[in-house]
Amino acid sequence: MAKGRPFKISTSFFTIDNTIWEEIIQEDKTYFITKGGIKVECLEQNPLKVYPRMDALIRKKVIRLPSDIEEYENEKELLSEIQKFIHKYVEVMPEFEKISAYYVLLTWLYDRFNTIGYLRVLGEWGTGKTRFRDVVGSICYKPMYVSGAISTSAVFHLIDQYRGTLLLDEGDFKESTEHAEIIKILNCGYSKGTPVLRAEKSEGTERWHPVPYDVYSPKIITSRQKFWDEALESRCLTEIMEIKVREDIPIDLPEKFEEEALHIRNKLLKYRLDRYFDITFQPVVIPYIEPRINQILNPFYSVIQDTKMREEIIDFGRQMHKRLIEDRGTLMQAWVATALVRLYSEQEIITMGEIAKEINEIYELEEGITARTVGSLAKKMNIKKKTIHGRICAKLDDRVIKTLRIRYGIEEEIRKETLDDVVQ
Asked: Is residue 129 a contact partner of residue 170, using CB atoms and an 8 Å limit?
């Protein structure tokens, strides 16, 4: 760059002195806009000249931008409009319909937080997974449509450059290598500051070098089955899709759908511009709920200001934890956990054989579980062992037992806390 010549960059949003400028598109031309409706074609910040992006991804509506800012009455009414829009075109359970509306709102402020969970629907063909992704995704922050035979390399670049909401159909990546790359994106993309490194060739040479890609962003995922990785599974807010029964939902999205979605995006853009620098992290700790569930619900709680809606977020967290417990209840690990909790109340030194005996008595197993099997299961559960007088025993303390109680739902019924009880 010659001395004195401005350095030109292009981006989809830019912050200067506590002012955020967001990209919009009007009549095939992109602009920056900020609070108050101030619109410019270029931002000059010496020595920078910053232009809004314009490329084939925007022209072909792979990425969908707002066209302007539009007024909304208040946060509660905006959420109501979002939920009505979802209800009009998609059939899901009322609780998930509501959490989906909250998630849409959160996507417009997600970059103010360090973590974000994923919105995910599971189901067979014909259950409406793609419809859910297209409808809910259409009003998220900078929805990025990923479909067809897209390469994982393109996905890395897409998130890194636009930082929008990735709309991902896991079934689009059938090759095992591509699927593994997508899992990397999902594992790293829920937390800020966790880039994925990819080996790429330097331009004009044969030398390879590591390139970091920022993949932190909201994501809406459709899939036919759960993830094998339990940690990744716990980052997803999930709905099991069923065959539809409502007759008022159109088979095909009507022409007015895009216009409706655009108006909501425009209102949400104003919401982002209004709230961006006012957001403060307000942690909430829901007792007897896994830490990861608390973690992914905290941004929701921080964004939502209405007290009643905050209580709904807390209730959803309890329901999510209950579903995880129900899933785990079919596993033999739950048997081991239950036996350990029961035995620990009477003794602190517990052998693998004693655990096996307790399981066989509790569940009246015909063939019976062995001490060797218990030892293998304990290893998977990260239960440490120690040898006492030649016998292999579980290494336990009150903290381990409390963790097992929470993780596997081995707990007396807990009173329903008030909102004040769970706020730090």
From this structure: no
